[in-house]
Design brief:
4% strand, 19 helices, 398 residues, two-stranded antiparallel sheet, 73% helix
């Protein structure tokens, strides 16, 4: 069962490094280590798996272009600080302190922006070979709509497999990475560690994006609590799950992997199978470690054609955008209030419009800057009392 749970997380976990230029084997290794560290901090009580986070794809790409991989690892270490700060605040003040500064009207548009900012990259990659892209896309859609049992939780993996097999039949796969790869070897970034850059600029670069993932973490813990019938936010406590996630991100930075986050896909598998024993998740983590040292697997992953990945991205990033919209609907955000319109509009305009905040050689843009804009607007804009007809009229006119 643990191996099956890993396959549920496998597609997403390896897709992030494939899109950002990191090593997929290292991503599996850091996901395995991160999950085990999370279980250590949470006293082995919470059945959660940690895998590569999609929220940081664009920030990783931008950080790599600006500072190289050393800067990226420093940025990922900075993410862990946000988790540790959030864990401390929750311990001292309760989860309400996080929800106060990052309500759904801020987080929903930020999540939408993550998907929207990646959509252009998805189209560009899909255009490399539209036949392979559509084959992967259609496969993922069919699995999501018609799949049964665990198969329904494997749309990304199924899309990659079908797209890859079709590419093999068409002679579109370069198998040289597979031939060159050893049968067994430590992941490249683990065998040859990337020294972090000692600079404050990359260290704070991804912190604003981390706020959205912190809120997502809280939702995931509540979800797994409902699935397992145990209040994990009380015992071992949200402060422990948050600290565990932060330690996992810090280990990813030291190992050369992408930042990790709690995986709702695996939570879905837990709900489907009714297997809530955390030992099963730890088996999945150990299996990820074993897969990561299988060199030929890494070679296969690196040989996946760009068109196949593009087809998966078309679906995936569209789905992320609608998850942000779903967050707004689920929390019944009232858009007859001008305040909410201004906050959501400010976040989306800042991100989609490509606004840049520059301080010396440091620049902040995209999702990170948009998250800060949402935070500031939520703090400074006055809250509107219910029943304010004048405000509702202004919203209607807008």
């Amino acid at each position: 069962m643990g191996v099956q749970f890993l396959f549920v997380a496998f597609g997403s976990t390896v897709l992030v490094p494939l899109l950002t230029g990191l090593d997929p084997a290292t991503a599996l290794f850091s996901a395995g280590i991160g999950t085990l560290l999370f279980h250590l901090v949470t006293r082995g009580q919470v059945p959660i798996f940690l895998g590569s986070s999609f929220a940081f794809i664009v920030p990783i790409q931008l950080a790599a272009a600006q500072w190289g991989w050393s800067g990226v690892m420093t940025s990922i270490a900075g993410i862990s600080v946000i988790y540790f700060v959030a864990a401390t605040l929750i311990r001292l003040r309760g989860v309400e302190i996080i929800q106060k500064f990052f309500p759904p009207v801020v987080i929903g548009p930020v999540i939408m922006l993550i998907g929207l900012s990646l959509s252009g990259t998805g189209v560009e990659m899909a255009s490399d070979n539209w036949l392979l892209a559509f084959a992967a896309l259609i496969t993922a859609v069919v699995v999501m709509l018609l799949g049964r049992g665990l198969l329904r939780l494997l749309p990304i993996l199924a899309a990659i497999v079908v797209g890859y097999v079709l590419a093999l039949c068409l002679g579109e796969v370069d198998l040289s990475p597979v031939a060159a790869a050893p049968w067994f070897a430590l992941p490249s970034n683990v065998a040859h560690p990337i020294a972090p850059m000692l600079s404050w600029e990359p260290f704070v670069y991804m912190m604003p994006v981390a706020f959205a993932v912190v809120v997502e973490h809280i939702g995931d813990v509540y979800t797994i609590s409902n699935v397992a019938g145990v209040n994990f936010s009380h015992k071992p406590g949200l402060h422990r799950t948050m600290a565990g996630d932060g330690l996992a991100c810090l280990s990813a930075a030291l190992l050369g992997g992408p930042p990790v986050t709690t995986y709702s896909e695996v939570t879905g598998a837990v709900q489907l199978t009714k297997v809530t024993n955390p030992v099963v998740i730890r088996v999945a983590a150990v299996t990820a470690l074993l897969f990561s040292v299988f060199g030929k697997l890494s070679g296969v992953l690196q040989s996946i054609p760009t068109g196949v990945l593009g087809g998966v991205m078309l679906l995936l990033f569209g789905t992320i955008t609608t998850v942000g919209l779903q967050n707004l609907v689920h929390n019944k955000v009232d858009f007859t209030q001008t305040r909410n319109i201004l906050i959501a509009g400010g976040v989306l305009t800042t991100g989609v419009g490509g606004a840049v905040l520059s301080i010396g050689t440091f620049s902040l843009k995209g999702v990170g800057l948009a998250a800060i804009v949402g935070l500031v607007l939520n703090v400074v804009l006055p809250k509107v009392k219910k029943g304010n007809d004048n405000d509702a009229l202004q919203a209607k006119q807008l």
